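Long-time lurker. I teach an intro course on protein structure, and each term I like to show students one example going from raw sequence to a predicted 3D structure in token notation. This year I'd like something fresh instead of my usual example. Would anyone be willing to generate the tokens for the chain below so I can use it in lecture? Attribution to the forum is fine with me.
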Amino acid sequence: MTEVIHKHHIIPKYKCKELGIDPDFDDNLVEVTRHQHALIHWGYMHNDLKPLLEVCNPPQWVIDMIPLGDNRDSGAAVLTARGEIEQIDMSGEKNPMWKGGIATGDNLKEYMKVYNQTPKVKEYLKAYQQTPEYKAYKKAYGQTSKYKTYQKEYRQKPEVKENKKAYMRARHAKKKQQGQGTLEEFMK
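-- Reply from a regular --
Happy to contribute to a lecture. Here you go:
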């Protein structure tokens, strides 16, 4: 099976667009195999011109315009490599979108708890919960057998029963202190 030849833009198209130049000029094109193409873009991302210089010798002014260390080349490398080149790996911490694992694995629950307390999210949720669609959904969900079973089992837990008793005692004491719930206010 013969290797398909790719036309590689030495100065990537995205950089040419930023510079306002046509990417298809003669000194900017070189024909390479798919494997070489992927390695060149991976090299660009890692500040390494060696894979490019193995296949061509572009003029210095073209080399000067190559955006070394730009994460946008990682996508081109990964897509062109098709998972067949071992050193091109975008998983986990090697991914340019990696955020330190703040929203993955064990940290997800804790991260979401903090995230949901931000003013922007609170405001959004408050507005969303007032929509007719949400209210209809909640009403319909409350009528499902799954929800009713869950509620029945939940109310039977000893800690829930105890919490409810304590709450009711405190509520009754507060009302009694305010004179509500008794005949005292009418007996004056």
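Some talking points for your students: The two ends are 103 Å apart (CA to CA). Residues 157-188 form one domain.
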